[in-house]
Amino acid sequence: MRKGFPAFEWWADPPQEVLVRMYVFNVTNYDEFMNGSQTKIHLQEVGPYIFREKIEHKDIRLNENGTLTYTTKRRAVFEPDLNTLSLNASLNVPNLALLGMTSYLSGASFFVKFAFNLVVRKMDMQPLVKISVYDYLWNNSNSLLTFASKMVPNMIPVDNLGVLHMIYRTYEDEVTVFIGPNNTKRFFTMDMYNGKNRFGYWSNMTCDSVKLATEGVLYHQEVSKEDKLHFFRKNLCRVTPLYFANETVNLGMSTYRYVLPLDTFHRPKDGSHDCYTLPGDKPHPDGLSEISPCFYDFPMVASLPHFLAVDPAVRNQVDGMQPDEEKHSGYVTIEPNTGLPLESKAGMQCNLVVKNVDGYSPVKSFSNTYIPIFWLQLHQVGIPQYLVSMMYFVVVVLPNVQGVVSALLVVLGTSLLAIGVFRFQRKATKAVYSYISLDTVPSSI
């Protein structure tokens, strides 16, 4: 990892090989639910809408203590050539501002609830709204959200709940990682995050520590099957583990496949402190992980797509979930000598948490439910051909060539030694004969 070398130059200006596939959920029984003839919303997956994630590494500094500090920035760019669906299509979706704010105020006093209900009635806010796909992703606002963000900015710090806008709005952080030959087993794992040894999301250091975490662009070197990798994605709000699954062959190289376990979002059974529920809150069912600290305290939890491996009682609160382990699980394929990921795929679903909102008449039918908002898949589809060629030379060609070259050098060295000994012996023999010849010459001569 030095300027001018291929690994550094590839990392500093990474090729755009990460695709973001966004899936949103459309409410298909909008009229029936609004008129009360049906009490459970039916969701239909719409997508994918495909974006390319642009990654930028800037302000790069090599530190004297064997670390590298840089600022990482990510943004999503729509790819028209890869899409068949229009961003102008209409959706029927939950009113995130109304449901989120009533859930946030679920424990408020009677007077707060009364005043809020008056505001909602005056603005004619409904629990379901019609909106374009583009606005749902990038520009989701309404009069209630604008009003609240101005009146109580400490409680409502944003006036735009576009889901991709919330993910990428503040996706710029300073990261310090270990590099150098003395850090093989912790190569490119975090030492500091925004100048601290913790993320700042959790009060418990076990959940909040940055140690061993990696952003997934590179993993540590000399990866073994016994290693547990630690992947950090900001919108997951914590580090998630990856475990060895099997050996594979990728691009002609021997690789290891690590997977994200299906119980990743399950709470620990031993009673230890978990990283899935905020202190003081009622624990979420298995398969749901709190992410509100990463989204301005907006009540949201993460899960695997379509509630895969989530408590069935949660899945049955809505219609339309179709979990598929093959489609919705995650993995990464790594070349173990260098720790370079050759391919990776991971899915995550964001769900709105609606607490007991019986005190708010427009939304009381949503009380104590988890409503899927969207799910996205991050797919690193490969690495550039020049990097493939370099990797193949380093991990396949070079070891074999090294053995042959070493053998040739041994033969050459032995031959040169033999020639040297032979020449030395010839010179020594000539010297002896010359001495004998001079010693036997007649004195008269």
TrEMBL record:
Q: Give the UniProt subcellular location, in the record's own words.
A: Cell membrane
TM ranges? 404-424
The entry's keywords: Cell membrane, Glycoprotein, Membrane, Receptor, Transmembrane, Transmembrane helix
> GO CC annotations?
cytoplasm; plasma membrane
GO MF, one term, reads: scavenger receptor activity
Return the Pfam families for the record.
Answer: CD36 (PF01130)
Instruction: Give the matching InterPro entries.
Output: CD36_fam
Is Transmembrane among this UniProt entry's keywords? yes
The entry's family comment says:
Belongs to the CD36 family.
Please state what the protein is called: Scavenger receptor class B member 1
Species in which this protein is naturally found: Zootermopsis nevadensis (Dampwood termite)
